[in-house]
Amino acid sequence: MALPFGYGTILGSQGLLVSGLLAIVPQIQRSIFVSRISSTLIGGFGIFSDRFMWFYTKSGAYSIKSAYHLLCNMSRAVANVVVDLRPFYRDFWKRYWTFSFPSRILLFGWKLARGILPVKAELCRRHLTSDVICEICGLLSESWFHLLAGCDWTRLVSAILQLPTSLFSREYHSPIVWLQFCLMKLSPMEFRRLLVAIWAIWYERNSARRMGNPPDPIRTAQFIWNYMTALDLSDLFGVRSERQPRRVNWVPPPRPFLKLNFDGGLVGFSRSGIGGVIRDHRGFVIAWFAHAFSPQVDSECGEFLAARRVLELAQFMRLENVVLEGDCLSCITAINDDVDPSSALGNIIQDIKVLLSGFQSWSAHHMPRDANKVAHLLAKSGLVSTTSFHDQNLPATVYQQRIRIVELVVTATLRHGHVIACLSERDN
Prior knowledge:
Residues 261-381 form the RNase H type-1 domain. The chain has 428 residues and is of the alpha+beta class. 47% of the residues lie in helices and 13% in strands. The protein is built from 15 helices and nine strands. The chain has helices spanning 27-38, 64-76, 86-96, 103-114, 120-125, 144-150, 152-161, 175-185, 188-211, 217-236, 299-316, 329-336, 346-356, 373-380, 396-427; strands spanning 7-11, 15-18, 21-24, 258-267, 271-279, 285-293, 321-326, 361-366, 386-388. It has a six-stranded mixed sheet with strand order 8-7-4-5-6-9, with helices on both faces. The protein has a three-stranded antiparallel sheet with strand order 1-2-3, with no helix packed on it. Helix 14 runs antiparallel to helix 15. It is elongated and about 70 Å long.
């Protein structure tokens, strides 16, 4: 059995041998460690012998760089406190990406929430500079909170914009916690104004650093108001400064192939779900499955499990020619390329390749989420170990999506036939 996290041997009930170092682990952390071992993915075909995996690199091989970052993250964690913040983070990001901002502001907010905004305190922590004094006030250390919320100049801008003072009453150590607090306290319009404000403050800070000119709070506040007005007008009239992505629909496979779509997702806060569907050239459902399970795994792992499950279903049905499609690019790339078997998902990838070798012909392709909606809805349905060979048993929301896809296929077929008829008449 492959041990997770690069751990070696369990030493009694007191500690673990971690990469050659004995670490005393509290009981609560031991239970999490044992749970992680029990949830490690093992291949179903027994191709690999037992081996060590380092779960902090994609290749599964140990590196000094990954160990250094791991130790840095562990040193910043609160000792002996284990809190699962994944539901908290998911809720924040789910709401954050619903806001309509230009990409530069969304990217700024993403960097801030991830704690990778290059303020001086962060650069000093990475040993890239020794100067930590704020560029604007020249008095205190330039942390992310000081620059965007605590600096006197920033407070002047916030007062002019009439932002609630409760947002800046105490310092937060985690930027994503502060942003979530702001998201809870403010209305969507106020949060938009806040995000534009801190982005403009960051822009003024960079300008002051490059040009050497002291920033003007009144000018900055006026810029923020004008920017917000332009955003509101663009929303009102449906104007977008950036090109919107083109919607992509599901495309039926050519005869005699059958198309296998798969997807993985999260079901609530404690479970994962996988789903898959097999359809013919007319868009008709030949078979489908949905399975929700615990413990929860990350989204990429769920995608690989869904791909393996839909291939197992196709092998059970003795299909010969298949097209495998999913919206996870890393999964499709791993299937088409050679992957180090020591990687965290190496067992599952090898299972997938063994299953694919049993078909007469196959191909694997990546497509956008819009073209994979049926599999996505099945993965999110929350059904437990459900498999069917009839489309009438599909959940209601999934069945409606299936009807829409069939209508699109029929419409496209009719249009294609009409074009061929017109060309034939013209040739005659």
